[in-house]
Design brief:
single chain, mainly alpha, 12 helices, globular
Length: 284
Amino acid sequence: MIGKILGVFFGMLFGGPLGALFGLFLGHQFDKARRLNQSGFARGGFGGADQAQRQEEFLNAAYAVMGHVAKAKGQVTPEEIQLATIMMDRMNLNNEQKRAAQEAFREGKSADFPLDRVLDKVRISSGGRHDLLQFFLELQISAAFADGSVHPTEREVLHRIAQGLGFSAQQLEQRLRMQEAAFRFQQGGGNFGGGHYQGGQQGGGNWQQASGASQLSDAYDVLGISEDADSKAVKRAYRKLMNEHHPDKLMAKGLPPEMMNVAKEKSQEIQNAYDLIKKVKGFK
């Protein structure tokens, strides 16, 4: 509307009635472009005026990029579709939100999906908050691991995503190693970091059923530290990760409330790894 008003005003001022008409036309085009720029992530639009809209756009962007990652190797697998569906259930999305997420996922699979532009808007919308951007990246890594491994083309896309969000290649590779360990560590547990997303209830004692040596090694990798780390290093890594993934802190920084359960599952995964290391090594 503001474009039309200004267009008519300046058109009348400099060109009389005809100028006003021309100014009205130009103002209409300006308003139309402005609405498109604010309407959705696929148009480059994280222009939400309030927190709720920004959170909704963050959520839809996550599903769109997830679809793009799933399509990277040429064909979307049943596991990746299942992951997206179970994520929707875990987030308790209502029917309207599910339709929006499904549409976003489909848009992400399109050949002309504007990945770099969407990532720019995610970074701007999140205020550059490291924890939120890391959470977004980890969602995409989990999508790539949905079928148990990361295809080379998926890895390439993940590097583009990491770069677009401000993470280095080294940081991405570390997160990939941590995610791969988490996949093994909680395999079959149906939580954020691992398993085949079979929808089972998360159990804090899943690690007790696995072989001790390999599970302990994976627990160290989940925390991103070496197996020769002393108790201080283990606690430091644990506290850092819990601080980064604490659901309440992420919510306070703008994480969509629908993603709260996902954040809780990730923090529980970190807790499980830490508890195992403490038990085996006798740390207090």
